[in-house]
Amino acid sequence: MKTLGLFLLSIKEYLILSLLIVVSLILIFSNDNSQVRFLRAVGVGFVGAIQSGMSAVPNVFEIEKENEFLREKNIELSNEVSALKEAKLENLRLTKSLGLKDKNISGVVIAKIVNKSLVQARNTITLNVGESDSVRVNMPVITDDGLVGRIVSSSSNYSIAQILYNRNLSISVKVQRSRVDGIMNYDGAGNLIINNVPKSADVKTGDVIITSEYSNYFPAGIPVGTVVEEGNLDNLFKKVILKPSVNFTTLEEVFVLRHLPEKERLDLENSYLKKQ
After folding, report:
1. pTM value?
2. Fold entry, domain 107-261
């Protein structure tokens, strides 16, 4: 109690001032004198003007919060638009790829490329399909444009395919127009080359190259590429360079053909080669 008394004593000047202000206000508002009414009207108008001006000043914190909300919504909408565009492009690619049905090629597995290399001597692609999707080693990989490569490794849910730009992949091919045969390889320096083409063979720039019936790994007739350069390699053979039918730079979806080599033929050919 003594402490409270000391505290009130220490602020007595403020208490007295507050009391006098309250009394003054009461006297002012209870006085009906014309001068007091004028002052009272001026005071009320002044306070109203201040309140009106303050209400016109925007709340900085509210604006920041609103801007943050709008930015988040803008990001969400941008992501949705991007996803819709990507879905549309994927739909167009798959719709185009379904044209394979018109080529009487059945038994395919649609796959998406999840990784690829294009700058090595032995380039590959990784697919999001595997043995659980009936994908097996040695199955061909194609698109609606042509040949991509061959499955060389698989797990339950993924598989790896050699592509044309892989030095370990050799393909028996044929000139569609003149039926000239050859073996296509990647030279490791950016060129797809047909080897063993005789100097006198009928091969011209612009000729379409397809897989031949001599290949046990690939069905015959799949487009491989187009001749972009041909000339004499030496006195016996031509140098034939291809541009692939498939654009590997933009490649995203492929088809795995459920086609495997004929085991009897493969065993026979391998057995004969071992005897040589």
Report:
1. 0.63
2. Thrombin, subunit H (2.40.10)
Half-sphere exposure of 182 (CA within 13 A, CB side): 30
Give the start-to-end residue ranges of the domains of the chain.
14-56, 60-98, 107-261
What values do phi and psi take at 143, rounded to 5?
A: -130, 180
Which candidate, 168, 148, 162, 229, places its Cα nearest to that of 194?
A: 229
Cβ atoms of 167 and 192 closer than 8 Å: no
Q: What is the pLDDT of residues 190-221, one digit of tens each?
A: 999 998 899 889 999 999 999 998 888 899 89
